[in-house]
Structures are given as C-alpha cells and as structure tokens.
Write a structure and sequence with these properties.
about 500 residues, mainly alpha, 2 domains, 5-stranded mixed beta sheet, 17 helices, 5 strands, about 5% strand, membrane, Glycosyltransferase RgtA/B/C/D-like domain-containing protein, transmembrane helix
Length: about 500
Amino acid sequence: MNIFKKSEIYKLNKTHLSLSLLLIASPWIILFITTNVIVRHSVFNSIPCWSDELSYWHEILSFSQKGLNFGYYTINESLPKYLSFGSHGFGAVSVYALFGKIFGWKTYSIVIANAFFMSFAFLFLTIAVKISSKSLLYILLFSFSYTPLILFSSTSMTELLNYSALIVYFSALYIYFKGGSRKMLISLLLFCTAISFIRIIYIVLFLPLLFKRKTEFQFDLKFLISIVLWIVFSALLFVLNNLFVSPYPDSFLNEWLSSKGFSEFVSNFAEHFSQNAWNMINPVSEDIIQVLSRYFIIFICLVCLVKSKAIQTRFKKIEIEYFIVFLILFLFLLINIAAYDVFDWRDYRVIAPVLFGSVLFLILNSKRFIIYFSLAANLLGILFLLISPQVLDSFNNGRYANPKGNKMLNHIVYTKFPNSRFTNTIVVHQFSSDVVLNIPAGIGITYSDTLTDKLNSKYIYSNNKLHLSTYNIIASNETGYLYQKRNY
C-alpha cells in the first residue's frame, strides 16, 4: 500500500513537473509556431516594421550601446524636461537595453527578449506559487489559445514585456492574499512602482493591496487615508514619469489640456469619452478580433461584479478575488475610454495584458466558471483568426523583408561629447525600416511633418529635395537626400 502511494505521488510530481516545464517553454513554442509554421519564416529573419517597433528598436540600440548619451527621440522636436527619451518613456526601453547590453542587439532582438521575459515570468509563477496540476493545465491551455498573445508574439512591440510583468504581479498578489507577509507587501509596492514606468496605467494595480483578505468592506477613516495616499503617490509617479518622456502632440491628453477655457475643456472631454464608449460597444467599429476582445473584458468585468456580491450585500460581505478583478478591469476600461483611445488596436494593446493577468489570477483561485468561459472565448478568437487571415497578414506584412542598405546614412557621425543632444539627432518625415535600421546607434530620431530651417537637429533626411538656407546636402542617392546643419 505504501509503495502504491509513493508511485502515485511520483506520477503526480512527474505530471506537475512536465506541465511546469511546458508552461515555461510555451512562449518559445508559440513563437516557433507563429513564425516557422504559420508564416513560414525564421524568427532570426524578422525585422521591426511598424513605426512604434522601429522607434522602440532604435532607442534601445542607442541606450544599450551609448548609455544615456544619445540624441533626441521626439516628435516635431518637442523635448522632454530631462534626458532624451521618446514618447514611450524610459521604463520599457531600460529593460530591453539591459537585455541588449548582455546579449547584443539585432533586428530580431525584441522578439527573442519577449519570449525570454515571458519564460522568466512563468518560471516565477511555477516556483513561487503552490499550484495544482489542474490549474497549471488551465493556464497552459489559456496561454496557448490567447489570441492577443499569438498575434503579438512575433512582433517587435513591447506587449509581451507587459504580459510578463502582469504574470509576476498577479502571481505575487495571489500569494499575498493567501497570507503573504509584510515583506511581500513591500515587494509588491516596489514592483508596482517599477512597472508604472513601463505603462503609467499600472498605478491602478496599487489598489488591490488595500483589500487584503477583507470580506467586509468598510469606508472608514483608515481606508479613506489609504485612497488619498494612493491618489497622491500615483500623481507623483505620473509627474515623475513625464519629466523623462517627450511630448506626444497628437494625443488626446495633450489636446485636451490645451483647451481654451472651461467650456471647451468639458466639451472636448465629453466628445472624446462618448466616441470611445461607442467604439467600445459598437460591433462593427473594428475587425472581429478587436471587438471580441472588448466584449470579453466587459463580460468578465460584469460577471466579477455580480460574483463579488458587492452590490447584493451592500459591501457587507464580498468575494474578494472577484471584486479585485472587477475593480482592476473597470478602472482600466474607464481610464482607457476617458484618457486614451478605443480604435486601431490601441485599447487592445492596453487591455489584453491585464485581462490575461486577471484570468490567470482567477484560475489560481479556482474560479471554474471564468476558466471555462475564457477557454471558450479563446477558441472563438482563434476561429475568427482562421477565417480572417487578413488580420494575421497585417501583423506580418513586411516583417520578413530584408531591409535595404543605405550607404548614404554612413555619412552620419555620432559625437561622443556634444554641446547639445541635437548634435546627435536626425529629423525624418517617415519611419521606414530602410531608413531607421541604417541610422547609427546614438543618433536620436525625431519625426517632423514639416522640414524647415527652424529645426535644431544636426541632420535631416528627406525623400524629396528641400529648399533650405541653413542646411547643406552632404549625400544623396535615388532614395533621398541627407542634410547637415551649417553651424555644425
């Protein structure tokens, strides 16, 4: 009998270990399937091709090779208060730059780094959390079938870094709610602070830490003070982050805060909010993949509100795990609608990682209904992906094309000790891989829709010949013209 029990334990441990290893390897398996099997290209032939990808890639190249001594990454030469980071901020760029410093930086490096970060996050999950084999299987199935993860796995976007951060966060949150120590609380506070510099909306993730193991909700003075401290600290993080982020003039926040008068301020906000809210529920506003994701998060949010029993019991007795997920998803939705955009994959990119983390948290807490619904929704997403191949094609268009060499850009010289960061900056009017991937490390790239003599950057690259009095042509070929400012 004892021998039988030992064999059963061995079998269980072997199954658990196999599932754990498979989960840790899953990012690489997904990457292999999406590249080698679906689009039939090696990941080592991939290049960043979207403007955001190219901007991330080159900024990381400069930071990893030149430290903080690189040119401006801006739009229309709108400068940050300090240093020269672009409109994406320094959080994500810093993480990838560390990876680049250790392993070097190639055109495919972000894709490889993303799989590495995801594997590390799943490793943390399997080691830190006491998790059943059944829950491991559910997480594995959910990961393999999550459409946003599949779509972005082969891109040079930073989405998978966000997934990784949220896997670690929700795993640690689960441990904390199951009886974590004060050290765990401090670690979570520090981790939330760090990832808020990757994406500022993660200030929302501080809130669940105020509800540890509470079954009865009390609006007392202690809770009020905690909320005020959270608001103040979040505001400080927002201000601190913005000191190192170059302005993004085309954003709603920039236009909204530039409103002339209170009535215009209110009118702009109301118009933006109502349009975003309509886009969120409009079934024909975008392709079916994005619409499905929006409905998915709204449904999970509403179900968690009902399951939390917060309204039914007037906050007297709540199911804390459901309430936490409702609170996070609701605030993410609200902030996205109020201050960001709901179109062209923008809301998809922000919401999909936190939805993934929320479902992971519910799986860890054995919330069966959410588990089964999420897996069914994922299968539906894959079905729509199969019948809508144009979505996958749009993600991979140009991603495996060899970038053309551009010897003209070899005339650009990086200055180690410049008088101004503009000395190491080039202005372009388009972000194409043939240009960006050939610009030397340390040369910041600023986009401008108007190329004039009023620019301060040392270099200008244009496809068309310009009539400028303060810039000279120093190189040209069939692709365009490279200009250098005379006073340099």
